[in-house]
Amino acid sequence: MLLVCAAKKQLSFLISSLFRVNGHLSAARHLSAMSEAPAANKQEAANDAEELQEGKARILKRGNDVFYNEAQVTNRDLSVAVLRRFIPQLAAEKAEGKIKQPRQDGEPRKKDKQKGKKGSNAADAAASDAAAPAAAAAQQQGARVLEGLAASGLRSIRYALELDGVSRIDANDLDPSVVESMKQNISFNGPDAEAKVQPTCSDARLLMLQSPGVYDAIDLDPYGTPVQFLDSAVQAVSEGGLLAVTATDMAVLCGNSGEVCWTKYRSYPIHRPYCHEAAVRILLACLESHANRYKRYIQPLLAVHMDFYIRVFVRVFTSAAEIKASASKQSYIWQSQGCDSWWLQPVGQQNKKGNSIKHLPGHGPAVPEQRCPESGSGFLMGGPIWSEPIHNQEWVAGLLQQMDTEQANYAQYPRLKGILTSVLDELPDVPLYYKFGSIYAVPAAEGHLDKCVPYLRVGGVTWCTFALQCA
Fold this sequence. Notes:
Helix content: 40-55%
Number of helices: 17
Distance between the termini: 107 Å
Number of strands: 16
Shape: globular
Strand order of the largest sheet: 5-4-3-6-7-9-8
Radius of gyration: 31 Å
């Protein structure tokens, strides 16, 4: 009996052990399959990657892992062209001494420095002589560029491969997984891209605040509004440097959500035919406002509306005296509610007497009466907007001439040539515009259409690119 019980126990032990072994084998097979799956998936993803080429840059696109906007090819082509013209210009200005670093807060003025040098300090002179070669070497190193929202890194890679005179490009994004994909794209483009493009994972605002005056060019191409980046951007750009800014929130800027535009840009839009140009001028006024807080001001080189967005290129300079004229560069809009007539009222004005300039509030109201003289209706008041020229037409002419010699570099060259040619045909000192149909309407009804024709073109110059786009 005891033998039978022992045999049963041994048999039970063998059966349970067998099940355990089988269980462990099954688990091992399952773990092995799980460990092999990522490698297989990774290989499958690599095989499924789509190679995209734009300009000299190539990127790998795997499904929707990183945002790539094919519609922005025109934007990127224009940006490359602008920087190809701007960077050598900035380097030449620095070499000629035209760009000087502004005096920092708390730093003694030049006269104070000269007073402090009485008694001739040989050590200071020697230190100054030693610093001069270092400054010259820093200028010869090349420009430093920041792409604040780089995503796939395509734009930064194009800058690295297609721009001369660039020493480093910081390609930044907030998403770590996106930065990993960006690193793969940079490596995919070889050592030339790897040597110049430095991927970073950070909040663009924090990165710029930590780099005051570091970047010779900053490119901000967000989805939506750029306003949250502007305050740090105007501090991070170097003296005379370039800010390239895109805004895609056109419904806000064009007046469909005026209260939202006011909270973001501190300007009230009016939804009228000139709304796209007004959107550009609102963004420029916003940039000027942010720059003024740090004794800086903007000089627009080029500002355009294309497709679903606006794009502006401005230089940033520092001058406590120049920013006093900021109010005279901006205006409010008085818009008739009964027709397309409008008037501009400058926010400020300058009273010049000899070498002295006195800055005063602007006169108003700009409207001739309490009612529109054309329709008898009341007015809407919008703005303030930038009312100075939005292009440097001489600079744009040089840009177009350069692009004509490099047509093969730009897939969107025909379209860009049309846009820039229209920019050159604009009246530079005439903000906003009327649509041709509005000009025709009243005289046509009264049988005086022939009187309109001479006013449509003044000296062979078109009123506005924006009007041609919207007509």
